[in-house]
Design brief:
The protein is an alpha+beta fold. The chain is built from four helices and seven strands. The longest helix is centred in the first third of the chain and has 41 residues, at 10-50.
Length: 203
């Protein structure tokens, strides 16, 4: 028999609500993990016929900038998602250990966000270097953050666009953190712009 409203203990309702919130949080984490792994698998299927990457290696030590340039020119350019995607380096290598599939997840999600923002041009460029690190600036000519809260854009499930999953930037931050790097909004960006800085360190 289902109890009436008068028979329900308020403390029981609070406990139930807390349990539901906990379970929903765990479910969101599981969905995020599965989606990230699916993105990595999708990247793997594209590498073999197009890039000189050993798909059975989880990580490689190589010039990250050369890999990024080739990935953007061959894979992103070939997908024709944005009219013009440019990669500009400073002519110097940056040797580090990285997963090509994780780099693909980062680039693919940034490109997808720019596409959703109606960007026609997108640019990846070396902004600065430190003794053991490098910062890449990512910009586009899309509509920017619109009504998004800059403090929340990297949170799991947060989105300001219709049909958005709230997973893209969350995945990028998760991957960058796993590489001891980071992603953040550019400090000198114009208000409302979606300009990002990716910071990588030697590993």
């Amino acid at each position: 028999m289902i109890p009436s409203g008068d028979d329900i203990d308020p403390e029981d309702l609070e406990d139930l609500a807390a349990a539901l919130r906990h379970n929903m949080g765990e479910l969101k984490d599981e969905v995020a993990y599965i989606t990230l792994e699916a993105d990595r698998l999708k990247a793997l299927t594209r590498f073999a016929p197009n890039l000189d990457v050993e798909v059975d290696r989880a990580e490689m030590q190589d010039d990250l900038l050369t890999f990024l340039r080739e990935y953007i020119e061959v894979i992103v350019g070939g997908a024709d998602l944005i009219s013009n995607v440019v990669f500009k380096d400073d002519g110097k290598p940056f040797i580090t250990t990285f997963s090509p599939f994780d780099i693909a997840v980062i680039v693919d999600n940034l490109v997808d966000n720019s596409r959703k923002a109606n960007a026609q041009e997108m640019k990846f460029s070396v902004e600065s270097r430190t003794k053991k690190g490098i910062a890449l600036l990512v910009t586009d000519d899309g509509i920017g953050l619109r009504d998004a809260d800059p403090a929340k854009i990297f949170e799991l499930g947060y989105t300001s666009s219709a049909g958005g999953s709230g997973l893209g930037l969350y995945h990028i931050r998760k991957v960058m953190n796993g590489m001891n790097g980071s992603i953040e909004l550019a400090s000198n960006r114009e208000e409302g712009r979606a300009d990002f800085v990716l910071k990588f360190v030697e590993r």
